[in-house]
Design a protein that fits this description.
Layout lengths: L15 E2 L8 E8 L16 E2 L8 E5 L23 E5 L5 E8 L7 E10 L17 E7 L5 E6 L12 E8 L7 E7 L9 E12 L2 E4 L7 E5 L5 E9 L8 E8 L5 E2 L7 E7 L3 E8 L12 E2 L3 E6 L6 E2 L3 E4 L5 E6 L5 E5 L7 E4 L2 E4 L3 E8 L11 E8 L7 E5 L5 E4 L6 E4 L7 E4 L3 E8 L5 E10 L5 E7 L2 E6 L5 E4 L10 E2 L5 E9 L5 E8 L5 E2 L10 E2 L9 E6 L5 E6 L4 E2 L2 E2 L2 E2 L3 E9 L5 E7 L2
Parallel strand pairs: 1-10, 3-4, 14-21, 23-29, 30-35, 42-50
Antiparallel strand pairs: 2-12, 4-5, 6-11, 7-10, 7-12, 8-9, 8-11, 13-15, 15-18, 16-17, 16-19, 19-20, 19-21, 22-24, 24-27, 25-26, 25-28, 28-29, 31-33, 32-34, 34-35, 36-37, 37-39, 38-40, 40-41, 43-46, 44-45, 44-49, 47-48, 49-50
Length: 619
Amino acid sequence: MRLFIIFLFLSFAIPAKAQLGFCGGSKGDPIFQFDFSNSGASFQQYTTYNLVAQSPQDGSYTVSSNLDIQSDSWHNYFPQTTVSNGNAMIVNASYEAGLFFEIDIPNLCENTTYEFSAFLMNVYDRASNICENGGIPINVRFEIWDETNTELINSGDTGNIPSTTSPQWDLYGLTFQTEPGQEKVILKIYNNGEGGCGNDLAIDDIVFRSCGDLTIIEGPDTETTAIGLCEENSPGNYTLTATPDNSVYQDHFYQWQSRLEGEEFADIPGATNRLYSASNITKTTYYRVKVAEDPVNLSNVYCSSASEEFSILFIESPTAPVSAGDVDWCDNLGAATLSVRATGEQQIAWYDAETGGNRIAEGTSFQSEREGTYYAEAFYKDYDCEVSQRTAVRLTINESPVVADEMLQICPEGTLILEAKLPNLAYNWSTGETTAQIVIDAPGIYSVEVISPESCSSIKTFEVRLVDDAQIAEVTSDDRSVRIMPQNEGEFEYSLDGINYQRSNIFQNIDGGIYTAFMRDLANCKIVNLEFPHIVIPKVITPNGDGYNDNFNLNGVDYFSASVIAIFDRYGTLITTGSGAGFKWDGSFNGQQLPEGEYWYRIRIAEFKEIKGHFSLLR
């Protein structure tokens, strides 16, 4: 069997804690700590084992900071817990169970309850699988004896501590009480584990400290450990009450202490009762009370327990916030930020009036889109003290230039004037110019920043494209409508007289005749035209003698010097033909009325494209 023993001083959070009997109240500062930081020192007086340089065998020990010196079955590192130089006492115990460590604990206080504690770790690495079933668990017994080594004061066993796959410290302890006149005890530590594979352990951080009641100080408000004293209410007078939880002491003796900011605690002469009257307080003052079972122990910090601090915080009247300055803002920038500076822990509230008014925001800054004067007030959030005078901050909202983006066209190899269209302002063009208008000679994206006298600005963007190419594909007539069809996609203007242009390419209620269609781009770079015949052709004839639509005749054909009109039935049989001027057909053939149906026409006009279509004959 290998028994592995390590002594270190630790100050860390332990992942697991197994209690044999810890102090349930208030713990004092350590009165005894065991330290192996001096690697050259011999600890033979505490153990019968022999010191070796490394790899201790049964009944020997060494001092080292390296755990992985003996066996592949152990963990290969210590948790990072040492507070000295990292050395440890490593002991390989004898095969037989029994006492393996004994040390005198001197300089204790009589009639005092103490807590002994130590950290233990099973150093066998369960993941190594060298020992069956995780190895033999460690099991340790702690005993506290009187200074004569004849009376056992208290003892406890840890029980089995199984191995783990990663190193883990567990904290164990005992509490005991010294008798009148008793100032020393003896600590003995035994190995209860069985011999065999496993039962290798580390022990660390042997500490003795006083154990007392957990005492709290109650002020006027028993729910807090601090109260605020507003400057306007000073000097302050309060009654403080020490309330122990009676978890350890049967008798209680008190000594009140106080300190100012930055000072150490000092006894308050004569303040030895459970109640203390703190009076004439004009500064932040901290209080605590020492408690002991024997009044002689009140003078020794290692023999008494102390309460947590109770604070009486002097709260100076808040000072008026310091303005970061009035704000001139522009209406196109969203909300403006108004700011002030506060002193220390003072908080800020914003109001819409110099006194009274509505509380509209909290914080050293807030945002608003409304012009006006706002007022900042300093206060303490956690204390009901008076507030400061209010600081005024003015917000002025200036109007920004109103602009609208434009899309323009430029002629090939031409120039174009871009205008901000807002006079008497400052201008910053994307071209670097600073005039109200500029001349460009190429398509692209241009912008101008227009700046008001109040330094508010807006950006106007010009999208300049090369002009669309104006070309007429054809002109179509449909009854009294005319449609000018463009050859290319784009934006154009259209006209039938070359004077009056429109964006629509459709013209309504046009009498028959010879017309010229005009088309131009929006930049008026190019104008094209096409002469075309416009003949109003009926869609239906009803030869019933009522004087309406009795004949197929054409409106506008008489404008042409030569024209030929032919009408066919649905089989392509020529029904009639004639010249354009005065042509008409009454729906008959060789004096016989033809049946209802669809009939086709063909109109040929000199120098123009042939016109074809059909119409309906109704009876």
